[in-house]
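4.2 Preliminary Data

To establish feasibility before requesting continued support, the project team ran the inverse folding procedure on a target of 544 residues. The structure was first converted into the token representation described in Section 3, and no sequence information of any kind was made available to the design step. The complete token record follows.
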């Protein structure tokens, strides 16, 4: 029993966040490996990315319908049960959710498998995507039940289990993507459609591997909460529990569905809009640039920041159940500050170095600098919306993110339809639509959050100082790049300039004293970090 108790030892809020962040950094680095491989692989390139992305976005939409709201819903309900000592109630929620969403996942798999021909030929107008949809279909079932298990562990305050399973899944995906694509080439030669199908089939292998890990982990350690001290509470019926799960998960899922719809708007409108003034083959390549390269790069910061959105839901739910709103407010304020400090420099850096980043990562397919520069503006608003949504869900305002993003998606659809067919704008119209969509969602979500928590979002701390730090980083790093390109190769100059940008930005954040002493203490090893800063004279106890 001692071993099992240690398994469920609660992580601190920031320990869980940093575990998730580290996992997401590793996941995205691995993701870049196979994206770089695919984009630069002979016979794949931007055309292969178009087939791969179109199929993957349809899969993501069906996946959202069956599972995406589940981790946060389960973690919220489980954390509330545990907060009042009802451990058996928490386990009962998990078991019922496992069977219900396993069934929904099976339905999603069947729809994608049997509807692949219609979706690819009629909806997407990309017939080559049919095999990619068939290859992806089993993943929906596995991800649906994976989401339930991850939500259960998140609600128990053990985000490391989720982080480990996500990392393992990405390792499998990266390895199998390369192995399956190369196997296709060996067996049938260079066939872009088959290569895209093989790349997506790797996702099915990866989700099965992640499910296997989580299932056996749960089976081994499930007695920790079953045998834990329990309070006597009224036993809820299966129907009551399902209603509760759906009440929380459906609005969260709706928000995620709208995110998928936003991507599918591009799938449906980009090629159609571009073919009004260019050949279909060139239009597919343009869509491949957007879906394969630009979306991959601009989603990197979102993946790092998702740790806050994931951790905030159970943390705020737990604090509310304990009637400790002071802790909830403090965590929300700190999370939004860190989110700004993550998103803003990423926006500035990717905008300034858009051409150089594409040349560095995709030397064989480096087109798309302008659309990447425009799309980089999405980052700051998307990461802010991500954290705000996690806070709102924890506070019980589960419909707000869906409404906010719904308004944004409608505006995006209108902008896509109007802007993409204009020859001078073209693919950039989809990027502009996405930027506006996220700005609208961020503004609406923040307005509601600001009315429901007691946090003072000072202009200097949350806006002016982060902008100054990002501006210093951008100016200095680009000046270094310009100074180096005449001396060393452009690629090496880009790498050194970006590396220097990170260092300059960290120093600027410290010099501007954006964090208070209490906020530094919230970071793992925060006391040691503050002691070093105090010795340097940057911080002192009288000021903080």
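Position-by-position output of the design step:
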């Amino acid at each position: 029993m001692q071993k099992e108790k240690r398994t469920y030892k609660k992580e601190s809020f920031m320990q869980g966040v940093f575990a998730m962040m580290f996992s997401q950094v590793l996941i995205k680095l691995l993701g870049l490996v196979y994206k770089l491989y695919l984009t630069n692989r002979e016979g794949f390139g931007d055309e292969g990315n178009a087939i791969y992305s179109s199929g993957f976005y349809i899969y993501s939409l069906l996946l959202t319908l069956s599972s995406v709201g589940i981790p946060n819903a389960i973690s919220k309900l489980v954390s509330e049960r545990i907060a009042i000592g009802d451990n058996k109630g928490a386990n009962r929620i998990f078991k019922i959710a496992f069977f219900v969403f396993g069934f929904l996942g099976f339905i999603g798999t069947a729809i994608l498998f049997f509807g692949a021909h219609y979706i690819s030929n009629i909806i997407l107008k990309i017939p080559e995507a049919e095999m990619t949809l068939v290859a992806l279909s089993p993943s929906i079932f596995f991800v649906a039940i994976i989401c339930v298990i991850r939500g259960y562990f998140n609600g128990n305050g053990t985000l490391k289990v989720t982080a480990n399973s996500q990392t393992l899944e990405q390792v499998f995906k990266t390895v199998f993507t390369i192995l399956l694509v190369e196997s296709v080439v060996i067996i049938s030669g260079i066939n872009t459609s088959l290569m895209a199908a093989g790349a997506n089939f790797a996702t099915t292998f990866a989700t099965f591997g992640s499910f296997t890990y989580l299932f056996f982990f749960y089976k081994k350690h499930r007695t920790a909460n079953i045998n834990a001290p329990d309070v006597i509470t009224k036993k809820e019926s299966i129907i009551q529990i399902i209603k509760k799960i759906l009440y929380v998960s459906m609005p969260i899922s709706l928000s995620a569905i709208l995110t998928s719809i936003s991507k599918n708007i591009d799938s449906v409108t980009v090629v159609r809009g571009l073919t009004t003034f260019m050949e279909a083959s060139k239009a597919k390549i343009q869509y491949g640039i957007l879906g394969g390269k630009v979306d991959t790069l601009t989603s990197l910061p979102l993946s790092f920041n998702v740790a806050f959105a994931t951790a905030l839901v159970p943390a705020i739910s737990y604090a509310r159940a304990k009637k400790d709103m002071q802790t909830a407010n403090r965590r929300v304020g700190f999370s939004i500050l860190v989110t700004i400090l993550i998103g803003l420099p990423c926006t500035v850096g990717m905008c300034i170095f858009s051409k150089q980043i594409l040349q560095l990562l995709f030397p064989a397919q480096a087109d798309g600098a302008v659309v990447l520069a425009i799309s980089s503006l999405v980052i700051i608003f998307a990461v802010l919306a991500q954290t705000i949504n996690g806070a709102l869900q924890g506070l019980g305002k589960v419909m707000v993110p869906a409404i906010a993003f719904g308004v944004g998606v409608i505006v995006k659809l209108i902008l896509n339809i109007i802007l993409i067919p204009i020859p001078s704008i073209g693919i950039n119209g989809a990027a502009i639509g996405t930027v506006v969509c996220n700005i609208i969602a961020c503004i609406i979500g923040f307005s509601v959050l600001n009315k429901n928590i007691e946090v003072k979002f000072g202009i200097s701390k949350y806006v002016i100082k982060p902008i100054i730090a990002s501006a210093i980083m951008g100016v200095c790093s680009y000046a270094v790049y310009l100074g180096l390109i005449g001396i060393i190769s452009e690629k090496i100059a880009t790498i050194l300039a970006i590396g220097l940008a990170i260092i300059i930005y960290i120093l600027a954040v410290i010099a501007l004293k954006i964090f208070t002493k209490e906020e530094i203490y919230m970071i793992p090893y925060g006391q040691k970090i503050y002691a070093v800063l105090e010795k340097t004279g940057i911080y002192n106890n009288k000021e903080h």
